[in-house]
Amino acid sequence: MSQHYYSRKPEVQHDRRTLSAVLRGRTFRFTSDAGVFSKGDVDYGSRALIEAMEIPDGSSVLDVGCGYGPIGLAAAHLAPKGIVTMLDINSRAVELARENAKLNGISNVKILESDIFSAVAGQTFDIILTNPPIRAGKAVVHRIFEEAYEHLNENGALWVVIQKKQGAPSAAARLEELFGEVKEIGKDKGYRILKAEKMTQ
């Protein structure tokens, strides 16, 4: 398959569908399409991260690799006085995420097409969330971790969901090198939720 969900401009034929998911007690509706990640339903890893993540109201939040929007829109719902910036390299996913924000009546979001952090150069956030694109390769995943550190405010936190069999141990090791301490917040069907805080120097 030459077209991946992390392709910049998917050329696969459209196959739009609407799905619903209960996330943090709220029913969301999402439009998805061919050429984006987990088009048939909100994937288990994203659901596990959404149920575990702590988003204090008023936080500035960044969702890296937002797809059609479930993680970032759930975060925006949890922090109505905050702002959630959502990034994806996939132009089709970005369009869908914008559509889904409107569909769910969520306005405290900014949704940008971005190669990892390129669209938010120089900006920092209280919380960064990612269900990283494992199929893009370990180098890309670790680059997300490295650049996340630079884009966090002091005492900010990076939340990551990753499957044990898809590299959770090496991901945790790299996060420990960058952040010093990594907390495993939860385990769910082989998925691990990791939280790394950028402590005041």
UniProtKB/TrEMBL annotation:
Superkingdom, natural source: Bacteria
MF terms (GO), sorted A to Z: S-adenosylmethionine-dependent methyltransferase activity
Is Ubl conjugation there in the keyword field? no
Signal peptide positions on this chain:
none
The alphabetical list of record keywords is: Methyltransferase, Transferase
Which CDD domains does the annotation name?
AdoMet_MTases
Species in which this protein is naturally found: Paenibacillus apii
Q: Which Pfam families does this chain map to?
A: MTS (PF05175)
Instruction: Enumerate the InterPro entries for this protein.
Output: RsmC/RlmG (IPR046977), SAM-dependent_MTases_sf (IPR029063), Small_mtfrase_dom (IPR007848)
Identify this protein by name. Answer: Class I SAM-dependent methyltransferase
One Gene Ontology term from the biological process aspect of the record: methylation
Tell me which residues make up the Methyltransferase small domain. 28-195
